[in-house]
Amino acid sequence: MWQFNFAFTALPPVADFANLVNRMQSTFASIAQCSYQITLQTQPDLNELASYWSWVLQQTTQRSGAFQGAFSQVMPHVQGDHLVLVFANQAWAKYAQQTGMAIINEQYRKLGVKHDLPVDIQVDEQKAAESAAQMAMQRAQQEQTLAEQAKVQIEQAQQQRKQSASSKPAKANSDRAIGRKMASDLAATPMIEIEEEERSAVIEGYIFASEARELKSGRQLIQLKVTDYTSSFIVKKFSRDEDEDAFFEKLKVGTWLKARGPIQQDDYARDLTMTAYDIEIINHPSRQDPYEGEKSGLSYIHIL
Question: 3-class SS at 85?
Fold first, then answer.
């Protein structure tokens, strides 16, 4: 485990720091797992703390199902000198008070926050639904901001490549793959064995659903549903340039692929998903049923 220590005058905007963490983890994914710790000269105010909420929840995806169930739809709002958290029922509110907030405070400590969050926990089913809508909006805005930042970084990287003749890591063949080249003998993990968040994993499977959409930044986000017949996963990837936009068109239903990237819990899919760094189209023999007659059903662990 590598820990990166950052010293900031104040807590940076969540989109900027999330982008920094994503780049740090992707750069060193093949070398070591990465962690971080921030030291702040000035403590953040309640609005700044609230702006980090949904991102903090994403960093705690390895926690129990109870944690995800309690907090996945909760969005704090500032009221006086407290953050108000509204839960749909008493059970989730009790869990948050006794267990969940300690987990969240631990994550905020890594952001340089010295004290526990001042929260007021309430139970109101209608307000909880409104909170869930606010959470969805904040997540969508952060995703859009990260995509726009990625576009700028890609353009800067392209310019640097033109100006520099320094050696670069081997790239994959753009006709069959995008991202860094994966070794031919790199083994994939059976999907059924992936039960929690991982910094980097390799999976291999058959695309049974594919959807790409264009973002306001002009880049594309593709979402693939992939199975290796032991289980299934959603694989997501943002395009980096026009070549990758074109490559996405090849990721059709029926195609076999190998993908590498971190495994994280998606609050909306409510399941583990992969955000792929590298994708390679592979050849794979057609799957044959072991016998004639009644076919046995497949039971997928990850519900898409």
Answer: strand
